[in-house]
Amino acid sequence: MNSKRLLIGSALAGAIAAGLGFAQAALADDAKEKCYGIAKAGQNDCGTATHSCAGLAKKDNAPDEWKYVAKGTCTKLGGKLKPPAGK
Amino acid sequence: MSAAPALASLQALFARAVVAGEDEAVLAHLAGDPETARRRLGLYRRAILANQAGALRAAFPVVARLVGEGFFDEAARRYGEASPPARADLNRHGESFPAFLSGYPHAASMPWLADVARLEWAAHESLMAADEAPLDFDALARVEAAGQPCLRFRLHPSLRLVRSAWPVLAIWEANQPGRDGTPDREEGADDVLAWREAGRLRYALLAPREAAFVEALARGETLAEAAGEGEPWDFGTMLGRLAGAGLLCAFSRGAAAPP
Amino acid sequence: MTARFPERAPDPAKAGIGLRTPHFEALATTRPPLSFLEVHSENYFADGGPSLAWLERLRADYPVSLHGVGLSLGSADPLDDEHLARLARLARRIEPALVSEHLCWSGIGGRHLNELLPLPLTEEVLAHVGERVARVQDRLGRRILVENVTAYVRFSGSTIAEGEFLSELARRTGCGVLLDVNNAWINAVNHGTDARAFLEAIDPACVGEIHLAGGEATPDGIVDSHGAAVFPEVWELFARTVARLGPVPTLIEWDTDIPALDVLVAEARRADAILAGAGARREAA
Asked: Chain B closest CA to C164's CA: distance in Å?
């Protein structure tokens, strides 16, 4: 219990230092963390689509096979994906 | 008023025509050539589908890329039937799309697809969440040692944690613009933290106990509870990363979570 | 409440453009002279985040028009109070020069259809829409503009011409009219009617804004796609309209296949030239 309390104390000290140095935070240095950027944020233009916002003129009489067989980049995953055991 | 039905019933007839294609009843109330009117109702029908699919495509670009256009449009159409939008704001239309995908029979061969969708929805919500300033760290520094284990935090509104049994982050990254869809790794049970920093979406892969720690803090558990009962581990690094990213927004001591 | 932004009305002798996300950065850095920027209100209903931050940043440089597409003014369903509350919150935050909606309905029976659907134009509907416009104006504490839509079908039970309907709505509620010249032209072509008769029936005093946009010819009629340059016929109608009304803040709408900012600004300049020749604003007799 004592060691846990010590850990909490040092964790908080670290957090306070990081919080006070918010601008120089270490997060950006971590290779695992990436910036997705503005592109996603920019896609809200059709959030309230009206007939001004989509392909009104398009007709879609696609055959069922086209609708039910996924034909995107999922083929790159090749069915090899397996969930690890125990999760 | 004799021939014209009241507004509510006329609109209900119109909705049946443009949603379900049952246009006979409303055609009786439309002016001009019935064949032209029937085709024009088709314009509305297709626009409604395209608008809803377009909104989903904007929120779920990786899912759309993974399954291709025809599959995605059909899934969007069926989702629209199962969960029709109740409000005008299509930015909120996709909330239950991940759950829909997890039960969509044609996606059964892609058991990871719903988790990719959950990750995308988390990002979508994160970008629309409220702005909030970090907590007062000088005040936090004044909390005496005895009170520290009982601290509770409120995390930033943009913070989202997605826990998956699949390498969802690898799949997601492989389907960003400029990538051909081949993931860097095919194994891993990804716990992904997403948040907004300086107006941009960021994300990080967490270790399982880090994810559990963040989850516990988000639930309002105390620092001691969130750290867990087992062998001591370095949760300080995670806490420091949250603080450094501006994700700790308020703290309280004792029984109640911060307001 | 203290204003956070410069109080500026759109310059009626100059055109504005629709603000779309691909142009955020270019607008903020190059700041081309434009009368105003217009957004779809619902796209900024978020609680926070980058889109709102961009809008606030650009609001410091331009008057902003909030153009709603989802209030469903003509629906027989109750007004969506949450939607209205979000609109009111956005208006408080952005301090828009103009707020507008459509003469249409978009949902019924609790299901939203995300389209601008046509209304039968009758006394009953005029009273209904009038009551709702008044409630929206009360809630927002300001005047709104109501826009004529593209109606691909019309109702045989309609008893009031669209121009008279809008003018009477404005007279009863104090709202203004957002005159979409492109919609007027498309309706006239699709239904074989006279766009000029519609435009001339509008009370000049109540017109607060004009919309111009491009469309697409399809086998089922001309579609209001907002995905192309303004049609020559629409430019001509626009010139006639401003000759009658005098200069009115005018918007170039371009929402799909969005071109480079230069192309949009060039369309706005073309409108500027026509507005410049329109002389002084004429008020109704």
From this structure: 19
